[in-house]
Amino acid sequence: MTDYEGRLRLGVNIDHVATLRNARGGDLPDPVRAAQLAEEAGADGITAHLREDRRHIIDSDIDRLMETLRVPLNFEMAATDEMQKIALRHKPHAVCIVPEKREERTTEGGLEVAREENKLAGYIAPLREAGCRVSIFIGADERQIAAAHRIGAQVIELHTGAYCDAHAEGDFETRDRELEMMREMSAYAHSLGLEVHAGHGLNYDTVAPVAAFPEVMELNIGHFLIGESVFRGLGPAIAEMRRLMDAARV
Predict the structure, then answer these.
(1) Is residue 2 in a domain?
(2) Which of 76, 100, 218, 228 is catalytic?
(3) 76 is catalytic
(4) Does the annotation count 49 as an active-site position?
(5) With 60 as the cut, is the pLDDT of residue 103 above it?
(6) pTM to 2 decimals?
(7) For the purposes of burial, counting CB atoms within 10 Å of the CB of 70, is it exposed (0-12), middle (13-18) or buried (19 or more)?
(8) Domain around 126
């Protein structure tokens, strides 16, 4: 296993290797092979989101990842009975509870925790008892972070999508405002004893300011790295992201 103390960790999301496979059918490209290549390139963990509609990762991918990975699997899932059963069967290192809507192209925002506090507290308790680290994918909102802490989550993952979108659109005022809110909420979550992760939409241009937050322990990055691997190869794409992350923490 990798040593997880010290440096900022990189989790590589392999969902969109499966998207490419499923566009044509068959077995290729194989997301499990991508996970193994990511391990070799220095990924500290692998993230895979088993959606209810199985639009990219499918059940057999999770089976094979659990059998072959040497680094931890971060199993992203909606808070459904079906997904809880799957997680309890596999007992991955971590489960990240995310919101999910069938019509969305990708996860659009953070989970609403405060309104569903009692339900989510009961939902995650068996996962924690099974030894999974429970993470909540959440917006940079004090009310939601406080609720995540109260329900017993060990980790929050801050949704970086609004920050990344604003940067891409050239709306630098909004970008900087989103970044500052994430900075403040990273510190707040850390003060509560939560481990702080971040991800969604990060690329070479946007990763450094988030990587520089001292409270952030892990970044989860997928779509950009899979896309960049078309041009660079997956190993070099990950190596460059790793370099930028490390440079931001110096």
Answers:
(1) no
(2) 76
(3) yes
(4) yes
(5) no
(6) 0.94
(7) exposed
(8) 9-248
